[in-house]
Fold each of these.
Amino acid sequence: MGEIDHVVVVMLENRSYDHLLGLLSDDPAYEGVRLGDPRFSNPLDPGDPASERIGVSDDAVFDIGVDPPHSHASVMEQLGRRRHTRGHRLSGEPAMDGFVAAYARKIAGHELGRPVVHWARIAAVAGLLLTGVVMVAALRWSAPLLVGLAAVLVAVEGGVLWAYRRRRALPVRAFGPLFAWPVVAVSGVVLVAAPLPAVMGYWQRVGVLGVPVLATVAAVLLRIRARLHAAPPTDPALARNVMRCLRPDRLPVLATLAREFAVCTRWHCSVPGATWPNRNFVHAGTSDGTVDIEVGFYRDATIFERLTEAGASWHIYRDGMAQVMVFENLLEEPHIRNWYEIRDFARHVAAGTLPRYSFIEPRHDGPRSNSQHPGNNDFDAPPGWRTDFQRGEQLIASIYQTLLANRAVFDRTMLVITYDEHGGFYDHVPPPTRFPAPRDTLGGHPAKSPLPRILGWFVEQPASRFRFRLLGPRVPAVVVSPLIPASPDPTLYDHTAIPATVRRLFAPGTAELSHREARSNTLEHLCSLAEPREDLPDLSSLLLPRPSDAVGRAAESAAVLDGARAPSAAAPRDDDFARKLRALAPQVGRKLAPEAVPADAVSAGVAAPGTAPPDLTPPGTASPDLTPPGTAPPEPEPLAVTPDLASQVVSAAAEAARRDARPA
């Protein structure tokens, strides 16, 4: 077995294994899909045995119109939870039959989270409470009691709001009217009940107050129940998009590497959910109990800190705003000095200064994006120009060719190419249901507040009882090295294989990141050759522009072919990931430059991603006073912090830290 000195990981976005690599091979032993085989199909309605079934096809396109759903609730539906669950806990092997139905629901505007609502509990408790409220409200001296009840409700809802803002995993998606209406209802009863004792008796007052209150609440509950359980309209023509797979010739770079090196046929994403928790598992071996995107800083220990403890080098290469910025510790000394722009990767490889571990994060938004996120492929472009998906292929080829150009480095390097989650696309292999959970989620979510458990007794959201024993669908993963023979690898992995491998290779004496990471299968066994291969594929013919400085060029504006200028592009569809990155940008800016980014700074909500940051008045230069005499100056507008501006702040802080660390 050859020795590995460097591990390079590039993680792209939102594609399932079957969607990208399902048609890679016709070998019956290969864990792909078969066209025309009814085993590889999904019903329009999983609850109807006679429902039309939609099979896989080989006509996938890069822009599918509507980004498939991939929230935790939607993924649980895709896995088949409606016929295989008790609450939100899978009790059997996932049927993998809900992909089309979940996509049809999103197209119709009814994307889940669809909670498990315990209507009998709600009706019983609501009936008892409302009956008691009405009987008390009918008393002559009820007004002070109802005012006190309203005060108690305000205090309770204040605690709920605090728990929600502190990421305590409340079983609700937003703090809104659901929590405001009890106070409004009690206040209304107070106003109605106050004058009644002067005109009617006690039981008359009970009837006058009780009948409309109970009828109104019953009507509201029935309407909510009908809306939650309504079957979404289905459009087979659109819904079949999640069943469409790409032919190998549509992704020549990834397909070539998958055939020539180790393609991991049982690599599952770590969480049946969204992007951030899955990326957090790559870095920290845990998602801190989250299954969907929750904006804010995380304090979990990461593989980068373990490497620092062991004295091993590491770099993060990124193009623009990166999700890994959610780990607050990495934005502090001494870690901040290890952040680089993606163009520096080629320079470090050529100079032989590649660190032990390199994590490469693509550009996620704007007309220069190359993450292969389905929502980034809707730009109008003339013939010959590449989509985001094709730019992602170019990024992979650039990284590979850059390594290939320096065999002294590449011969001792393992390159891992994978995707954070499946993005809502079909995969036929059921994920394991008894995988080791991270230690911080054993026995349930780490929330300390009892409020999630109380509210979850009535309305059970997927995350409220998720035990992190179930993995998500498969994602493409290809491990590349001159020490790896061409062969599929059927070993079961999740994303914690990455930090587990890096820690075993370069920081073996450090503490585990999580219970799952410590028990994860690792990748070094794939480097089974004693001597590096000489028959390595050359992807230069697939690479535009030429390999020289290819990584840096891929990170800049859209490729310029034959001297043409890049076409102007409208802003991309506003997917949830891009919105959350923009929400994170002000926090990153305030963390690193509090004097430049004030506390009231806001994310650039409608600014097109990838636009230039706003011009700021140079230090020491007075702004012109345009206020008319005798009028008060207008209130200054909060600074709009774009992801690009936050990225520039990170780059400046990293360069300053490296400059300060150099010996005088």
Note: The chain is about 35% helix and 10% strand.
Amino acid sequence: MDKDTATKKVIVKTAEAKKGSDNKKSDGQGSSSNIFIIPLCLLIAVAPLIVRYKEFNTHYGGNYWYLANENQTDVFLYWRHIFITACLAVMAVALIITLITNIKAIKKPPVFMWAIAIYALFAFLSTVFSKYSYWGFNGAAELFETVWILMGYALIIFYCYFFINRDSALKMIIYSFLGSSIIIMLIGALQVLGKDVYTKSWFQKLIGVDGIKLSIKMPVYSTLYNPNYFCFYLALIIPLLFYLFLFDKNIIRRLLYLVDFALCAICMYGSASASAFIAVGAEMVFSLFFTWRLFAKRKGITFSLVGIVAVAAIALIVSGKFSTIVKHFYEGDSKGYIDYSQFPLQDITVEENDIKVRYKEHDLRFWLLPDDSMGTCFFNYQVDESNDGSKSMILLPEKNYFVLEEAEFSEIYVQPKIMDSEYYSFVIHIEDEDWWFAVGRNDYVYHYLHTPDFSVYNIDPTSFNVESIGKFAPIGQAPFVLFKDNPLFMTNRGFIWGHTIPLLKDYIVLGNGPDSFVHIFPMYNYVENYNYSKVGVDFSKEISMLTMKPHCMYLQIWAQTGLLSLIAFMVFYLWYFFTSVKIYFFEKYEDFRSVVGVIAFIGSVGYMVAALANDSTIAVSPVFWVILGMGIAINASIKKQKKEKEGADAKKN
């Protein structure tokens, strides 16, 4: 080797070493910076796995629509929200300390990224000024997505932007996510195959429910609480598995990706979630549009994966699962469109001096005539406010109730019930349902009495006073738009959306507060729910059918934190979306970072599509926000690298 050759090699090695050193400096704050990635790994990998029994107080007792015991139990969400809040607190402290001690080295966030901070601000203000702020600060049953967690989502974005600066940080997050997903999908696949671990004594001891009967009647839920939330998780994990399988050349890791992908397919099949298939379908379209170059580079693997997807699609069709999914999307669980003319009972309203019943296109009015001397009550009624005036109802002594003289109203009778020191109570029996009412002894004001199903609880209501058997409640028709004729759309979401949309005009600036949707949804439409139950829809006027959430993340944000917060959220996401489109449409995917960036982008698209029919939930949402934050950090890094390259090229020229 001559002297000149040796000198050239030294120069090359020195240049490469300098380049690597420069990359490390630009990538982060040294090896210790990966310590800051640990909370993100905990949110994306550990939080979705937390399942633990907890008894808690709902604090719902003061509401007319709540008749159950205030003390309820939770397995999936209570301890998870504690864990998530703790992680967010640690992240907040770490970020504040970093900003204080190293403010000059912190990169300036893009202007549009501040939109998510505005979203967090309106979430906080909506909670502070809400009548239901207790639940916003402390969490509510089946939800526990408090204002601290909503604000924490914005924190995650800034945290990722400041601290994810190295490929090693990306790998920590990605591989943590993959490891956790294998466990979640394995539990879900076992449920689909009829081997639910929640029925095993060892697992029940593990989660603290040993000796307590679990009543979970869902096809697949794993640790994610609900099949609907599986679609969120699938939308986030499937693109990751797909692209890593294409990009990664390690055979062992590829086999793990395939195993995880197969488990995802089983869970997706078992959930029969229409929104999951729609979300993944949207992701496939975006994948073809943005990553065709990557597919072209890996033709053999691409054709293999396409073949697997084709076989899975054929299996869905042959098994009849596809038709079930389509039916749920278009029709819900019954015949789809509702013919309201089939319901004789159309409305019940309580007026100051009587009860008005709309039945078979007639307006019937009932009022009570107490006879304290005889210890009973009599009843008068009127049909369509006729000129004949009121009529006395006919007492059938052997049955102890009163009937109307018209034959067309033979399905109706009125029966006196409890007479205590404060109220007279009576039942208007219509077809197969008892409707309870009470009249004040002193003011003669009429009230609807919301009562439980006494036959279920084996209760004799006459052994109690009036106020102890139920709660005074409003009753009537709630505003219903868009889906009035098809409330069963997307498995009854039409019913919920149609009643939610009229509420939104009241929440332009501030919302009603996190975890408070149940307080504003019109629970008083008891007649409507009763009629739906007659055609096989799973609605009833009992406590089991509380509507806790709107089943649409966008409606949820508007109702709970206000329209302005929804606009801020959408401005933020659309900024990320169009930034990603600009980057990845021309990307060649020659490094790990760009591949993970497009994974985050496509996963976020799938999530946002699934969110059209599902709510934000702590079962999955922290995973989404970590992936979204990771995507924003990667986009910033790619843009910086391209800008530096353009600058270097300009200097050469």
Note: The chain has a mean pLDDT of 85.
